[in-house]
Specification:
single chain, alpha+beta, Arp2/3 complex 21 kDa subunit ARPC3, Beta-Lactamase, 3 domains, seven-stranded antiparallel beta sheet, two-stranded antiparallel ribbon
Length: 474
């Protein structure tokens, strides 16, 4: 039910975003038609927005952050009222299509950037017209600052709504994302305002201005990478806690999945145990598009999980369509999604690979080496859960057998007839350790020994005695 609610909330958010963006796009179209604008400037801002969005910083499995706000701020200042909405929306659609994002993601992202840039353009126009009579030309600076705050505020609000719709994020967790993302966006955007205003005065300030923005972006990216590493380690700690809280492997796998999907894109997930004797891979826990599926068995050969078990090495597939043939495999999907990126990590118990754990995403290049290292550590924790459950099952079985043996011993001790003793012993053996074929033998033997002997024909039992040889006397 949680997955159904999340999908309904996400669909509603996408529709609402698309509807709200329509007035801003219409305002931008009117501005481009009615007011004079240089086409080269529109093209340059479009290209800059696409270029700056090519290497986004992943702050969440469902949210990216890029310095494209720098180009959007320039569009707010230089383009007619609302025109930046069309440029930003088209640029974001182009970037998302290049990255092979899903259709609903493309629609939502384009609508969201149209809304935030449209609000910023409106705030800039209102502030500039209000301040221009008093401060004349410098009015564009406070107007641009106000537009930046409006742009960042609307972006953060839409980001929080997206996280709440997708993951049901709590308020505290949402504020953590808001503070981290807002800090970076404000830094880029305010630096862009300063750079743009200086360039308007003297274009040669581009020489130091552009390197300053580039180095600032690299520093922010490095900080986000470090923070993400810290979140990954915290996730690993939570997985360790989940493993120690239950002896039910299904519950443990469900808890592991819940932790993994907070830091990795997880459109599909599975935990598989290998049965080498039968050459079968038993998929004990399967999730497809937020839906938990019943377990199933599959072959070891010809699968990514089987390849990882055979090589005893983790596997990172950045693009299934491109890399699967290089591995000598043919795609055989078990779910409804069309995965493009795959991570598979072996699960080891005392150095022996007993299975594999995997996450998949519908987006290509969704994972990196750091994600693979995290999944390897999580797979080792999941293997500990399997080992603990197996040891518990063995201990429980041994304890049950000891109790049964004690009860059988008490019952045997209370018997007086040998036939009853043999019958009790045979029944105890059959119920505990006897294999099927031997069970029948023991049952027949017990029944034969407990039944009274039948005298032979003639009514007498013949008992042969061996005569003792007479001792010779002298």
């Amino acid at each position: 039910m949680g997955g159904v609610r999340n999908r309904a909330a996400t669909t509603g958010l996408i529709l609402a975003t698309a509807l709200v963006s329509i007035p801003f796009l219409a305002l931008g179209a009117v501005g481009l038609v009615m007011m004079p604008v240089q086409l080269w400037l529109v093209g340059a801002l479009y290209a800059a927005t696409v270029l700056l969005a090519t290497r986004p910083i992943r702050i969440h499995p469902d949210a990216d952050l890029s310095p494209s706000d720098v180009a959007i701020v320039a569009g707010v200042i230089f383009l007619p009222l609302g025109a930046v909405s069309i440029v930003a929306a088209l640029a974001r659609m182009t970037s998302d299509m290049i990255n092979h994002k899903r259709r609903e993601q493309i629609i939502r992202n384009a609508g969201a950037i149209a809304i935030s840039s449209g609000v910023a353009s409106l705030l800039y126009a209102i502030a500039w017209r209000s301040l221009a009579p008093q401060v004349d030309a410098p009015a564009s600076i406070p107007a641009a600052v106000l537009a930046v705050f409006g742009l960042v505020a609307v972006d953060l609000g839409q980001l929080y709504l997206l996280l709440a719709a997708l993951r049901g994020a709590s308020l505290e967790r949402g504020w953590r994302w808001l503070v981290r993302t807002g800090r970076a966006q404000l830094l880029w955007s305010l630096a862009a305002v300063i750079t743009i205003e200086i360039i308007v005065i003297q274009p040669w300030f581009l020489v130091p201005g552009i390197p300053a923005l580039v180095f600032g972006y690299l520093d922010i990216r490095a900080r986000f990478v470090a923070e993400r590493r810290a979140r990954l380690m915290a996730t690993l700690v939570e997985v360790g806690h989940a493993v120690g809280m239950s002896l039910d492997t299904t519950e443990v796998f469900r808890a592991v999945y819940a932790q993994v999907r907070t830091v990795l894109e997880t459109d599909a997930f599975f935990v598989a145990i290998v049965d080498r004797a039968r050459s079968v891979m038993s998929y004990r826990f399967l999730v497809d598009a937020d839906r938990e599926l019943p377990g199933e068995d599959g072959p070891v050969d010809g699968t990514l999980a089987g390849l990882v078990v055979e090589r005893a090495q983790p596997l990172l597939v950045r693009d299934i369509a491109r890399d699967l043939a290089k591995l000598g495999l043919v795609r055989s999907a078990w779910g409804t999604i069309n995965e493009r990126s795959v991570l598979v990590a072996p699960m080891r118990i005392q150095g022996v690979v007993v299975g594999a754990l995997s996450v998949q995403s519908v987006k290509p290049n969704a994972y990196d080496e750091g994600d693979l290292e995290l999944l390897v550590a999580i797979a080792n924790e999941a293997a500990i859960a399997i080992e603990r459950a197996d040891l518990y099952a063995r201990a429980s079985g041994l304890s049950k057998r000891l109790v049964d043996l004690h009860r059988t011993g008490v019952e045997i001790n209370s018997q007086r007839r040998m036939e009853d003793v043999i019958q009790l012993f045979a029944n105890a053996f059959v119920s505990s350790i006897g294999p099927p074929r031997r069970r029948c033998t023991w049952i027949r033997a017990a029944r034969a020994s407990s039944s009274p002997a039948t005298p032979p024909a003639g009514g007498r039992r013949s008992i042969s005695r061996s005569r003792r040889p007479r001792r010779a006397t002298t």
